[in-house]
Write a structure and sequence with these properties.
The chain is of the alpha+beta class. It has helices at about 5-45, 100-130, 170-175, 225-230, 245-255, 295-325, 335-350, 355-375, 380-395, 400-430; strands spanning about 50-65, 70-80, 130-140, 155-160, 165, 185-190, 195-200, 205, 210, 220, 235-240, 240-245, 260-270, 270-280, 280-285, 290-295. The protein has three domains: about 15-130 and about 295-435, no CATH class; about 135-205 and about 285-295, Pdz3 Domain (Roll); about 210-280, PDZ domain (Pdz3 Domain), CATH 2.30.42.10. It starts with a helix and ends in a 5-residue tail after the last helix.
């Protein structure tokens, strides 16, 4: 093998291994979910016909004493096929013939195991930190503005931000990211008393839209800015009609724009082009330090649960933001986009020798999958639990054929939705711009 062939193999491997890590992560999350169904089905004596990971063509299969175990090509799902799960059966061990409380536990176990995995990962991450965050402000940076009159003070324990309870210091960052105004309503405990601070001000700057070099040539343009007409390689000449000759002038003019809707004049392929009304992303400047306390078994365990609660609330708030139009379809990632994110994080983690960010992503994904599966949507576990709730209330199950039709329609709609999201992921990967 030549030296150049070795370089080629090494280059390919450097691209492939992060994707394999992402697939492994997905496989673990899927396995945990289906294993939750499987272990309680076996515990309650339900006949399990097949336990499978993945979808599509079969790679491996083995017939056990009762259950067939299979591994499929595409790591995008899995199933635990139980006798009498979607149809009536005369088998005494069929799922449909088990007591209602047993069926509820079996169906809920998959999502519950996903959430428990998230709690375990969060607890491990808290345990690897030098200190455990307390949510109490230790000190402020020299440039801080949030400690001005009527604002925050050292020793304040943050209880709420904009009406949302703060479970962990993770919440502080997330909740402040959701508000682009730089003005927040805090509730803190100060000197033993609960105190409301109706308008705490923070500095706001632009961030996350693009980067630029020493010649004001931009790169890494976000999908939203590409839709507005910006492109990688554009050289910024003017901001709101004011010429900017260097980085300092460019940053200063952007900072002057209080509503962060900017008119750019750029040079592109030798032509001067105006790109008007570009809505910039804003980032609140986090200007204080949170107090950390020494680790012990109790605060590490409590910290892990609190981080998991923070992530759980973040999932539902993000879903609400999506439904209300705060985020567009292009900002939603499906399996393809998620694999890409995990692969990038794996690459960065290897380069920095810090794997905490990668496992934080894994915790977020497994909690996300667990909570999403509990939503009362047909074809999901939550949809099945909804029909069981009806049975519990009215003491009579919905006829199996009607429930089956509803789940079938739900599955078709879910697959269409996943196809659209996956297509958006692929288009974003190819063009850098997702669907609206």
């Amino acid at each position: 093998m030549s030296f150049f062939s070795f370089l080629t193999i090494a280059a390919v491997w450097s691209k492939v291994w992060p994707i394999l890590i992402a697939i492994l992560f997905f496989g673990i999350i899927i396995f945990i979910h289906e294993f939750g169904h499987f272990i309680f089905a076996k515990l309650f004596g339900v006949k399990v016909n097949e336990f499978a990971l993945g979808m599509g063509p079969t790679l491996l299969k083995k017939q056990g004493k009762e259950t067939k175990y299979a591994l499929h090509l595409f790591p995008i799902g899995g199933y635990c096929a139980m006798e009498g799960e979607d149809e009536s059966s005369d088998d005494a061990r069929a799922f449909c013939n088990k007591k209602l409380w047993q069926r509820i536990i079996i169906v809920a176990a998959g999502a519950t195991f996903n959430i428990l995995l998230g709690v375990i990962i969060c607890t491990a991450l808290v345990g690897t930190n030098e200190y455990v965050g307390t949510g109490t402000i230790l000190q402020f940076y020299d440039t801080a503005v949030s400690n001005s009159e009527g604002g925050l003070q050292p020793g304040d324990k943050i209880l709420e931000i904009d009406g949302k309870r703060v479970f962990s210091d993770y919440d502080i960052t997330f909740l402040m990211q959701r508000n682009a105004s730089g003005k927040f309503r805090f509730v803190v405990r100060r000197d033993g008393e609960k105190l409301e601070l109706p308008e705490v001000h923070f500095a706001v700057r632009t961030g996350g839209n693009f980067s630029f070099d020493e010649n004001n040539v931009i790169a890494d343009v976000s999908a939203k800015l590409k839709k507005a007409g910006m492109k990688n390689g554009d050289k910024i000449l003017k901001i709101n009609g004011v010429a900017v000759k260097d980085n300092a002038a460019l940053s200063a003019e952007i900072a002057k724009d209080k509503d962060y809707t900017i008119n750019f004049t750029v040079e592109r392929d030798g032509e001067t082009i105006d790109v008007a009304d570009v809505k910039m992303m804003t980032v609140t400047v986090f200007d204080f330090v949170i107090l950390g306390e020494d680790k012990n078994v109790l605060n590490v365990a409590a910290g892990g649960v609190k981080y998991a609660l923070s992530m759980s609330r973040m999932v539902y708030l993000s879903l609400f933001d999506l439904i209300t139009g705060r985020y567009g379809l292009s900002e939603l990632a499906g399996p393809v986009g998620t694999v890409s994110v995990i692969a990038d994080m794996a690459q960065n983690s290897a380069e920095s020798a810090d794997w905490s960010g990668l496992f934080m992503i894994m915790a977020l994904i497994t909690i996300n999958i667990g909570l999403f599966n509990l939503l009362p949507i047909p074809a999901l576990d939550g949809g099945r639990l909804f029909f069981m709730l009806i049975e519990l209330i009215f003491r009579k199950p919905v006829p199996a054929k009607y429930e089956g039709w509803i789940h079938a329609v739900g599955m078709v709609l879910l697959l269409i939705f996943m196809a659209v999201i996956s297509a958006s992921d692929l288009w974003k990967w190819i063009s850098g711009v997702g669907f609206y």
